[in-house]
Amino acid sequence: MVDGNRITGAAREVGGKVQGAFGDAAGSRDDSAEGRLRQAAGRAETLYGQAKDAARHATDEAYDTAEELYDRGRRTLQEGHERSVEWPHTSLLVAGLIGFGLGLLVRGRS
Predict the structure, then answer these.
(1) Where is pLDDT greater, at 66 or 5?
(2) pLDDT-derived band of residue 108, with 50, 70 and 90 as boundaries?
(3) Helical H runs in the chain?
(4) Which long-range contacts (CB under 8 A, 24 or more apart) does 53-60 make?
(5) pLDDT averaged over the chain?
(6) What is the C-alpha separation between 81 and 91, in angstroms, rounded?
(7) Is the pTM higher than 0.85?
(8) pLDDT, tens digit, for every residue of 60-98?
(9) Exposure on the CB side of residue 44, measured as CA atoms within 13 A
(10) Is-contact 42 16, C-beta < 8 A?
(11) Number of neighbouring beta carbons within 10 Å of residue 67
(12) Which of 10, 15, 46, 74 has the greatest number of C-beta atoms within 10 Å?
């Protein structure tokens, strides 16, 4: 979806170009300068709209990635739970080894 600032900025930029060209042709410094100013303001608004679009796109990509990682973690957790139910002795052995390792870490070397 294109940001509205990009559309209005492009219109303002074109209008400024036309006004500047008209001022140049008519020899009016005021119209020429005002046209160049409108053209610059339109370009700035267009760039602002582009930046908003880029930020929105980056946010959407980050959200999609986070959602994918969450789903992957949920599936991994579910698979681990199913395996622990299938092999309770292995789960107890792993838990015991983790407890033993933590005990060694807490006790430290004496």
Answers:
(1) 66
(2) confident
(3) 4-26, 29-86, 88-107
(4) 53/1, 53/2, 53/3, 53/6, 56/1, 56/3
(5) 89
(6) 10
(7) no
(8) 999 999 999 999 999 999 998 887 777 778 878 889 999
(9) 7
(10) yes
(11) 10
(12) 46
The span from the CA of 15 to the CA of 35, in Å, is: 7
- DSSP states of 80-94: HHHHHHH-HHHHHHH
Q: Which residue's entry shows tokens 């042709």?
A: 25
Give the type of residue at 53.
Answer: D
How far is CA 83 from each of CA 77, 78, 95, 99, rounded to the nearest angstrom? Answer: 10, 9, 14, 20
Q: Which two tokens stand for residue 82?
A: 């199913």
Q: Which residue has the tokens 């015991």?
A: 96
What is the structure's pLDDT at 110? 57
Q: What is the rounded distance in angstroms from the CA atom of residue 58 to the CA atom of residue 49?
A: 14
